[in-house]
Every structure is written in structure tokens, then in C-alpha cells.
Amino acid sequence: MENNVLKDILKDRIIQRLKTIHDPEIPLNIYELGLIYEIDIDENCDVLIVMTLTAPNCPVAESLPLEVEKTVKQTEGVNNVQVQITFEPAWSMDKLSDEAKLELGFL
User: Fold this and answer.
1) Cβ atoms 25, 92 nearer than 8 A
2) Domain 2-91 belongs to what topology?
3) What global pTM score does this model have?
């Protein structure tokens, strides 16, 4: 129980850090854009981030994962960070959070 609470606190901290990273083409953070598919934290506080990009040929395909890794690694309590890029399922506008849809005028 206690371990799960600590993981939840750490996950919340990580999400807050991810919300500071913005997509250069869409004026929203990568978390609200729905680019983060998974945040997995093990018992050593090692973090695996599974994420996607808005398109495979995204201009920040190389720099964005590095920025995510660096930013998450600065989160208090995080040990090691690994960022994995996936295109399954492909990103689409339906992955946007309600906040992002509102910001972009879709709601």
C-alpha cells in the first residue's frame, strides 16, 4: 500500500514536469496533447516513459525524447529514466485531453 502511494506521488510529480514540455508546432504541452502513453515506475524509482510523436517525421523526433528524459530525471525521487518511442497506436486528435481540446477550440 505505502509503495503504491509513493509511486502515485512520484507519478504526479512526473506529470507536472511533463506539462512543462511543449510541442513546438502545437502550442500545448506534450501531456495534454496525449503524447505520453505510459509512465511506469519500478521499485527502484526507475521510470519508463512510453510516448509517441504527432508524426513519425516530426521535426523534434530526436530532441523531444531527450528533453523528456532530462526533464523527468530532474524530478525529485526519480532514479533512472528511459524514454521509449512508439507509433502504435498512432497519435491522433482524439488523444487530446479535454483541456487541450478547449484550448484549441474543439470544445
Assistant:
1) no
2) GMP Synthetase; Chain A, domain 3 (3.30.300)
3) 0.91
Give the Cα separation of 100 and 42 in Å (integer). 29
For 34-45, write each residue's pLDDT tens digit.
Answer: 999 999 999 999
CB 82 within 8 A of CB 47: yes
Give the whole-angstrom CA distance, residue 70 versus residue 65.
9
- Domain boundaries along the sequence of the chain: 2-91
Q: Where are the alpha helices (DSSP H) in the chain?
A: 2-18, 63-73, 98-103
* Segment (H or E) for 81: strand 81-85
